[in-house]
Design goal:
By secondary structure, the chain is of the alpha+beta class. The protein has two domains: about 30 residues; about 170 residues, Nuclear Transport Factor 2, Chain: A (Roll). Helix content is about 60%, strand content about 20%. It contains eight helices and five strands. The chain has a five-stranded antiparallel β-sheet. β3 and β4 form a beta hairpin. This is Phospholipid transport system substrate-binding protein. It holds the Pfam family MlaC. InterPro entries: MlaC/ttg2D (IPR008869), Tgt2/MlaC_sf (IPR042245). It comes from Fodinibius roseus.
Length: about 200
């Protein structure tokens, strides 16, 4: 057997198979079904860890809840949206500190009202266009129905992340942008950063 010719042939066949499989996998991951499955799995994992109402949690369980609830949030994208043009004027060190403080505050706030994660969730619409996804759900807890939506994007790491959460028609990212821009206009970015440092330290 002539291995000089056989090796390139085997290599080309393997490469051809790779090129055939990868696009199919990518399309599957970018489908509406993939987005819905990701959110359903997250919801189920949160509910399992929450347990019945009134459950007391250890610090370890609280940290795990934070990780599950916030694990697919793109804090950098939300922070950049909230800061608008100010983000481009910051040094890399300032950006990193801001994103870190921003994510700490959101993670801590996510445990303030854990009962909302016990709600029954109905998926009303999941749409995917390229690397962007829009999700509309209705959360039903006791006698209260709350519309909850998500905007998501597909990253270079081949995973979906949240860039915004719309609760009862109020955008989380837009709310932070209004708050932050108001402080920046009146007192400057340094004042905003100091405010976040204090909130994150609580």
């Amino acid at each position: 057997m002539n291995y000089f010719y056989t090796f390139p042939l085997v290599f080309l066949m393997a490469l051809f198979s790779f090129l055939l499989i990868r696009p199919a996998e990518s399309v599957a991951q970018k489908s509406e079904a993939a987005v819905k499955q990701l959110l359903e799995d997250r919801d189920e994992e949160i509910k399992e860890l929450l347990g019945p109402k009134g459950t007391e949690y250890t610090q370890g369980q609280r940290e795990k809840l934070k990780n599950i609830i916030n694990g697919i949030i793109d804090y950098r994208a939300m922070a950049q949206f909230a800061l608008q043009d100010t983000y481009d004027t910051l040094s890399e060190e300032e950006r990193e500190e801001f994103v870190d403080l921003f994510s700490t505050i959101i993670r801590d706030q996510s445990l303030n009202k854990l009962d909302i994660y016990r709600a029954e969730v109905k998926y009303e619409e999941v749409s995917v266009e390229g690397d962007k996804a829009e999700v509309r759900t209705m959360a039903h807890l006791e006698d209260v129905r709350t519309p909850v939506g998500y905007t998501m994007k597909y990253t270079d790491n081949n995973e979906w992340v949240m860039t915004d959460m719309i609760i009862d028609d109020v955008s989380t990212a837009a709310s932070y942008r209004r708050q932050f821009q108001n402080i920046i206009r009146k007192k400057g970015f340094d004042s905003l950063l100091e405010t976040l440092r204090k909130r994150a330290a609580k």
